[in-house]
Amino acid sequence: MRPRCGNGDPDRHAFRDRHLEEYSEPGQQLHHAGHDRVGERDRGAYLSWLCYYTGVLEPAFMSKFMNVEVPRGTAGWVPVEEAMPAIIKALSPGPYILGERFSGADVLYGTTFAMFGQSSMMPKSTVIDDYVQRIVSRSAFARAQARDNG
Fold first, then answer.
1. Disulfide engineering: 46 pairs with which of 2, 35, 74, 143, CB 3.0-4.6 Å?
2. Bridge partners of 99?
3. Phi–psi pair at 40, nearest 5 degrees
4. Which sequence spans correspond to the domains of the chain?
5. H/E element holding 83?
6. How far from the centroid of its chain's Cα atoms is residue 89's Cα?
7. Confidence of residue 137 (pLDDT cuts 50, 70, 90)
């Protein structure tokens, strides 16, 4: 029987580390950027941005895509137009979501915005456009794309 993924499951870490390594630059020590380790200075922000993506941004985009009004007072998220300013504010000082340090959160947000940036669901923002350009211009992004495309 295979162990469930949990805090101590090496399979979970191997999967995550392998994928984050694909997005790291040569010589860069990304290793989940250390942001999720207890005691790391950016741990709270890193985990908060991961939660913001899954708990706020993703359901906001799904609501917009499905043309369903966000049920105020009962939903744990807001419309896309209200969710994006927090991301834009975090990215404005740049270059990455945690400031100077590239992290797994940038892999998540940057590749999502790169995929859907031209969609009418994405509010237009030069801050987001510049961020996406920084993400997709990384040599690690090109390597991951080449690998995905065969």
1. 35
2. 96
3. -70, 140
4. 31-148
5. helix 80-91
6. 15
7. very high
